[in-house]
Each structure stands twice: as structure tokens, then as C-alpha cells.
Specification:
The complex is a heterodimer of chains A (637) and B (354). Chain A has a single domain, classed as Cytochrome c oxidase-like, subunit I domain (Cytochrome C Oxidase, Chain A, Up-down Bundle), CATH 1.20.210. Chain A is 60% helix and 0% strand. By secondary structure, chain A is mainly α. Chain B contains 9 helices and 12 strands. A 5-stranded mixed β-sheet of chain B has the order 3-2-1-5-8, with helices on one face. In chain B, strands 4-10-9-6-7 form a 5-stranded mixed β-sheet. In chain B, a hairpin with a 2-residue loop joins strand 1 and strand 2. At the A-B interface, helix 6, helix 11, helix 12, helix 13 and helix 14 of A face helix 1, helix 2, strand 7, helix 6 and helix 9 of B.
Amino acid sequence: MSTNSLGSADGNIEPVSEATRAEARAASEGGGHGDHGGHGHGHDDHVHPAPSNFLTRYIFSTDHKIIGIQFLFSGLLFFILGGLLALAVRWQLAWPWSRVPILSTIMEGEWKTGGQMPPEFYNKLFTMHATVMIFFVIIPLLTGAFGNFLIPLMIGARDMAFPKLNMLSYWFMWPAFILMLQSFVVEGGAAEAGWTSYPLLALFRWATPGSLNGQTLWLMSLLFAGVSSMMGSINYITTILMLRAPGMKLFRMPMTVWALFITALLQAFALPVLTSALVMQLLDRTVGTNFFTPVAWSVANQPGPVGGGQTILWQHLFWFYSHPAVYIMILPAMGIVSDVISTFSRKPLFGYKPMVFAIAGIAFLGFIVWGHHMFQSGMNPALGATFMLSTMMIALPSAIKTFNWIGTLWSGSIHFTTPMLFAIGFVSMFVIGGLSGIFMAATPVDMHIHDTYFIVGHIHYVLFGGSTFGIFAAIYYWFPKMFGRMMDERLGKIHFVLTFIFFNGTFFLMHIIGMHGHPRRIATPYEYEFLNRPGIHFMNEFMTVNALLLGASQLIVVYNFVVSLFAGPRASENPWRANTLEWATASPPPHYNFLKIPTVYHAAYEYSVPGVEEDYLPQTRPLPPASQQMVLEPARG
Amino acid sequence: MWNFPILPESASSVAPDYDFAFWYEVAVGVFFTLFVLVLVLGLANRYRRGRQVDRSHPPTHSLKLEALWIGVPLVIAMSMFGISAVLYIKQFSPPGDAVEIPVVGKQWMWKLQHPEGKKEINELHLPVGQAVRLKMISQDVIHSFFIPAFRVKQDVLPGRYTEMWFRPTKIGRYRLFCTEYCGTDHSVMGGWVEVMSQADYERWLATEQAGESLVEEGRRLFVLNHCAGCHGENATVQAPRLEGVYGRPVPIQVGDRVEFVQADDRYIRDSILLPKSQVVAGYQPIMPSYQGQLSEEDLLKIIAYIKAIGNRPAPGPAAQPQYDADRGIQPAVEVPGYDVDKPPGATLLPEQTR
């Protein structure tokens, strides 16, 4: 390794020469085979080699990149589980009480119903689908996988501020995983009080079979997941505030980092409330406290224990976390999409500062809108009207975001790569998910559609059309950086087109049947005459067929992912010709990320700068003097 | 196949207003969805790579544009807020002539009783045009009372009364069901609202099971459960009289101070079940708890009775509280079958709930 290049402080020369890059790449690959290739860097005080021990290098690793990839893999595995649970839900809705392929054969002995799914099992399916997707897939993928992998790389740090805490944050997910999976096999089965777990359904053993033991495991599992998220948040906040590379001012950070930063703040403030609520419910269930049992409560006309709590209290505490949780699940995707759209439009992000303030605004409003989940709970109408107003205000920052993405496309030179397609898909679908949200914001309108399929449609437009499209964009975009290989573009585009079509086919009609009064969380929709119509039957079957095809389309990305992981073409350092710092180091980056910590000269969005030969200008290269007058610091907008 | 309306029939007085607000939001939603879609597709096509278009001076920011796309949504959001707030107030202001019907939800059925005494399960017969106020409580987990055709929905909570009102405007049979997920058979916890003409309703009310009225049943329970022994006219125990109490402020002893509490349904329910929690000033906390002795239906009946006598004038000064150290501390009438030390257990095995 050349000490000359390490000592070079001249910004006009690329800090890392081609030779050292190749060396670094060789070092990181050599280490991959378990030999001592990583030891070559010992003479540099600032650069530490990757541990050569397999266990500390890949399993109990403190390297943010490895931890990010660990989160990615476990998240994607649970994505498969969550998806299969959803398909079983859809099967029951389209063809109620018919044999479910495979599932019925496996569960025949357990159910003793000749292959028919019992209603309790259906209730477990939707409860666990939501729980797994929210707590084990979307949050860990966005904050755990991409937060971990990207934050140090994008701000020019060698690792997180607290690497050991970071490792713990991943390994605290495992008790959560194990407890949740174990809950499927305990007596009574997995929790089935809905992912919202409202007491008293979740509290008492008699209320529902899943509240026998499964609910206790559910609570403990989420406690572990919460601790994991909390460790991550503290780490992200500290890292972003303390470890930015020289020149990386706050308003030069890429939107992805901004979004992850604000998300970490959201988590840090909201999670303690969920944690305490979970502990309260756990105590109610196990040691007989009365946080959520109502005053002088009795069941089935029989004397019961004297409760002194409030059933509604859980809903307040739960939604105080879980509404911000919706933003925890969408804000990082918004950041990712902003970066992807700017990169592939070859154009600066439109209105960078308003975009940052809009994210902050959404996060702030996220704390004062939780009541809109509880309009029917019997709250004082004056309070309800306040929540209605604050919820409607979310339209404003959301509009800023949407129109600024559109403004970014304007006059760009748009490259339709797979990540770009998913990002554009995100913008269009997020608009539908956002606009259907105003139906819930307006209290009187919410009265009719609350707890109907309209809500299910809305949340899936936000979490699938939004968050999941964002996750796909991120996977296709950063796969080369993560694994040093390219994914197949053609398969990626096919995957996008099929996902986009079947996604809409699955979820759009939910709005229509919801308006018609189709309730959510019911195992037999056709009990009710006004739903037992050919039109509703057709729509439910159509949605299920689309859901099955949507599931099948994901096999393409699984295939693409696995094959590219081992046999994809080698990725160059900067295959997308992007500006942000992670592209200024090798693919995959060495253990220490940057041989020399880069110096940052400008914001992340200097594309197509006049006077620069290429249509991009990495943050590590200063603006050419000739163009300095012409280039508008996006920060000014 | 497609011959069903997107929204269910509108059969209540708030439904037309609801439908207006709803379709207004649909119009806004569809417009902006299409607007964004056209913009995205149009721009993506116009500025796709390789196409020869004018790309000089690409905009990177514009305060004017930002102001535009903050301002327009703000105006629309405010108009929605206005429309919704008016409707919201309407939804929560029951008219004075509303008939109160108690509703008890349990896994997995609805039990209702008309003021005239007629009981129903999973059915509600109503005369057209008559405003109805449902006073609802759950016996176990949270339920929610939903009538799509009326555009009304209200959670039904354990241990706390919630209210909902509507005025049916069309004769017909409408579905009602539970929309708060409540366990195994949640999906079949439903029923019917049958809206009839006034004459039909009266005929229906007159046939079969024409027992006592709700208030009369409440009075009987009031005597049967020995409430009258202390709170009645000939009581020997020092207890407040309940005539003229309902709906008025009641003085409550809190430490050295006296606070006033509105004697509403909640207060009366709590006083029956947790009598020592809010004791009327000047009285001793001697009343035993009726927790476990009275079902939610019985409580609703007793409350109906106390409400009915709430309109009677309060008894004269003779019955006003006079503290008597000798009599004040003696225990109230024993409640038969109630063992303070060993209340019968409430836990049901899961098999029994099925």
C-alpha cells in the first residue's frame, strides 16, 4: 500500500489511486477465502484489517457492512415467510373453507377439519403476516440493512460510532425471531389478537386460543426487536452527528442519510412508549397487574378480578409508537428514492432543502396524529377534530416530496434502470397510498371505512407500493456495492413490470370492496348478503390470483439475487456513475471502507454540471472553477 | 355482476352528507393520482435518455413552485377539514327526541333491549324516522357496532359506555356487524337492523314477549338487589336518595375537599361496582360492591331506572344527609351469595368459549 497516496491532501487528485484500489480489492477478496490476506494493512494506524477469524468476521462481526448484509438476509428470509402467510389469507378470502394447497396437507392432523382452515388459524395468519412484515422485514430491511450498510459509507466514516452495540443490535433480533417462530408451536398457537394486539382480546387466556401462550411470546419477541431498533437508532444518530468526513456538512448529506437520521430520531423517541406498553401488557398477562383491564370488570356475568385500568390506554400507547412506525417504514424509502431518481435523471434533486424539511415535517407530525387510528374508540369529538386537523397537515410535506420528485425528472436525462423503475413506481404508488390516507384523516369519512378493506388497501399501497418498492430499488441500486457484482438488468426489469402489474391487481380493488363495507380480519366474507354477490366474489378471486402471481414474480428476484451473488459480472467502483461517497471506494468496500477518509466538496447532487466532462461529479471532487458561478448550490432552495 | 353500488345503500339522515364528503375526497384523490401519473409518465417519456430535447438550464429549485404545491394542498385540506368538521359535529350531536336503546356486545353476539322492554339478539327493529341513541357496552373484549347503510360505527368497550346515534330514513333490512376484531368467530358476529313503518313497528312491539318496560325491570332489580333497602323511601341505613340525581352534579368527598361529579351513566355504573371509589359527601363508604352480582344488561336496566327517577324532584330536607356516628358505620344489607374473601373465579377454559 502506498503511503504517498495516504498522505496526499490535494483534493484535485483523487485521494485513492487506481493501484491502491486494486490492492484494497485484492485484500478484501483474499480475506474472503479465510486466509490472512487482510493482514497486509497493519502498518497503517487508521486502517484496520478485517478479522481473519471466520466467526468474528462474518457471524459476530462488528463491521457495519456485514451487519447490514446480515439484516438484509434475515429480512429477506422473513419476507418469504410473511408473503406465504399473506397468500394463505388471500386463498381463504377467495375460496373460503376450501383446501389450501400444501398448507392443508401439512396441517391436516392438527386441524382435524378435513383440510378446512379453522377461523383461529386464519386469525393467526393475518396477525403474524402483519407482525412479521412490519417488525421483521420492512423496519429491519430499511433501517437495519440499508441504514447499517449505507450510513458510514455515505458520510465517509470507517464504521459506526459504536460497532459492538451495532453487532448487539443484530443479535438482539435473534431472540425475537426464535420467540416468534416458537410461538407457532406452543399450545394455542401463535398470537392471534391482530398485530395491534388490543386488550382484552390479547390479555385473557379465554379470549382467543392465541392468547393462551402465543401472545406472551409475541410480546417478548417484540421487546427484543424493540431493543434492537433502539440500539440501531442511537448508533445512527451518533454516527451521523459525529463521524462525518471533512467537508460533509449536514446540508451536503444525501437524502438517504437525512431520511435515516430522522427515522432514527423517530425511533428513539417513539420506541420507549411501545416498550413500556409491551411490558405493561406482559405484566397484565403474567403477574396479574391491571393496566388494561377496565374498572370492576367481569366476564360472562361472572365475578372477575377487580381491574383498575383502561382498555383504551393500550391503544393510545400502541399508536403513539405505531403511527410514527409507519413513517419509520416509509421515510428511509423516500430518501433512497430521492437519491435513485436524481442519479438516473442525471440531474440535481429538485429542492433539496425543502425535501429535508418535508421529511422532518412528516416526522414531527407523525407524533401528533396517532388518534386518527382511534376515531371510533369513543374519544371526545373535540380531540378527534384536533387529530383530524393534524393528520390532514401531513398532506403538505407529502405534496412537497411528490412534486419535488417530479421536478427532478423535469429536464433530466432519464436512464430506465431497474432501480429507477422501482423509484418511479414508488412515486406513483405512494401518491395513491397517500391520497387514500385523507379518507382516514377526515373523521366522519373514516367512520364508514374504518376497519374495512379500504384500510388494508391503503396500508399496502404505502407499505408495498411505497416501502417495498423502495427496498427493491435499494437492493438493485446498492447490490453492486454490497457484493461487488452486478444484478441482471433484464431480469430486474421483468421483475419490476410483473411486480407493478400484480401489485396493483392485488391491492387496488381492496379500496372498492372496502367502500362497499367489506370488513377486514374476517374469515368468511360471504356470511353477509351484501358481500355475497358475484361482483365481490370475482374481485376477491381476482385479487387472490394476482397475489399468487405477485408471489411467483418474486421468484425472479430471488433467482437474480442468488445467481448474481455468485456469478454476476464484476461491478466497477461506480457502476451507476453516482456522486455519493459510497461509490468512491471499492465494490465491495474494504473492511475500513476508505483507504483515506475522503474530503467532501459539495452536495451529493451535482449531476450534469456545466464545464465538467462527465455528467456527474463525485462529492470527493471539487467543482470546476469555471462553473462555480453557474452551479446552484441546491442547498439554497 | 357489477350491478352493485360502490357505497352501500344510504338509509340514515347522515348518510347523504357522508356520501357528499366521501365523493368529494374521491374526486380529489382521483384527480391528483391521475395528475401525478400523467406528469411522471409524460416527463419520463419526454426526458428519457437519448431523446433530443431542450435540457438547458434544468431547474433545481424554485420557491415559487414550492409555495404553489404547499398552497394548493393546504386549501384543499382546509376545505376537507371544514366539510368534515361540520359532519363530525352532526354525527356526535344526537337530537333530543332520540330513543335510548341499550346494547351489550359479547363474543359473539349483540344483545339489545327496547325501552318498552322487548329484548332482541342480533336484531334491531326500528320505526323509520325515529332517531335512536345506542348506549353500548361490552361484556368481554372490544367490539364495534357498524351499520354500513347508515355510515355509522362505534367501538363497544368493556367497562365503559359508548354512544352512537342515527336516524333511519328508509324502510328496509340492513346488515349490522362487529368490525373490531374480537376473536375466533368475529366474522359471524353480525345481525340485522329492520327499519319499519311506524304502524308496523307498533304492531311488532305489541306481539309476543310484551313484558315489563326497561325502567320497570330496572325498578324490580333495584328492589331485588336490595338497593331500595338503603336508597329507597323507607331506608333505615344512611344512604343518599337517588331521586333527582341523574344528570346533575353530585358532591364527592375527596380528602378534605368536596368535588362535584356529573351523575352520568359512568358514575352510576362505577358507584354500583366500585362504591367506595367516589363517595357522596356526608356519607360513609358502607355500600358493598355489586361487582360480579349484576350482568351488564342488569346494570343498564338499573341505570335506566335511576335515570327515570332522575326527573322526579329530589326528596325534602328530611332525607338530606345527616351524619350519625351511631348508625353511619353499620354495614349495609348483606348481599346473598357474595363472599368478599372468596369471589367465584372468572377464568374460563378456552374450550368453554367455543
